[in-house]
Specification:
Elements: H1 2-24, H2 37-61, H3 76-103, H4 110-116, H5 121-151, H6 154-167, H7 170-173, H8 175-195, H9 198-224
């Protein structure tokens, strides 16, 4: 049983981490020329396929329910806790980290944000939802819970899950945001370990990214008009 669990965990982590690694590596160019809308949409589709594969591994290989990812039935309390975490991220952590990066002379989120905002609004909305649902499912709901089960240490599992997820952001965001992701990721995983509610984490992620990539740009554009 232990060997079977270990094998299924290795398979799942290979899909969760390896799939995203391929997507952000030069191999991702197989989907089409960078910057093309069709390529970006295919990238989003691949991420959802990875999430589907993880769900299949959990149900069929591990023979576990999806609740083993701490995916609970919908509750309004999940939304409330997610909004609370998002507020902490947006109004405390991210401003502090942005200031720290600037003080250290390290490039922050500006370059990645400028690139992301070049995308059409519809694509940005899709990307925000995909990032919240898929990334949190792969990197927290699956990777953290399975590493914790495998190692017997939630601290070790959290450290590894956060480190890998942060570094996977490097190709698209650069080292400054990666350093910031180590902090925000640690907070997100700690919150998950406490609340054991994947939906709350998803709500927080979608809210933070949605404010940055959809809501605030629209408000700013409205002011300029």
């Amino acid at each position: 049983m232990i060997k079977r669990q270990s094998a299924s965990t290795v398979a799942g982590l290979t899909v969760a981490w390896g799939g995203v690694l391929l997507l952000v590596s030069p191999a991702g160019r197989l989907l089409g020329p960078p910057g093309r809308l069709s390529t970006a949409l295919l990238e989003q589709l691949v991420l959802w396929v990875l999430a589907g594969l993880i769900a299949a591994i959990v149900v069929f290989l591990e023979q576990q329910p999806l609740s083993s990812l701490n995916l609970q039935p919908f509750r309004w309390s999940s939304v409330a806790w997610g909004v609370f975490l998002a507020a902490v991220m947006m109004y405390v952590l991210i401003p502090a980290l942005t200031w720290a990066l600037r003080a250290a002379g390290i490039a922050g989120f500006e370059g990645g944000m400028a690139k992301a905002l070049e995308a059409p609004l519809g694509l940005r909305i899709v990307a925000v939802i995909t990032a919240g649902v898929v990334e949190d499912t792969l990197f927290i709901g699956y990777a953290f819970t399975r590493l914790a089960r495998l190692s017997g240490s939630r601290l070790l599992a959290g450290a590894v899950a956060v480190a890998v997820a942060s570094v996977l952001h490097l190709p698209n965001w650069g080292w400054g945001p990666v350093l910031a992701y180590f902090v925000t990721g640690a907070v997100a995983v700690s919150f998950f370990a406490w609340r054991k509610d994947l939906l709350a984490n998803v709500v927080a992620h979608v809210t933070v990214d949605g404010m940055a990539l959809v809501v605030m740009p629209a408000v700013t554009r409205g002011f300029h008009h």
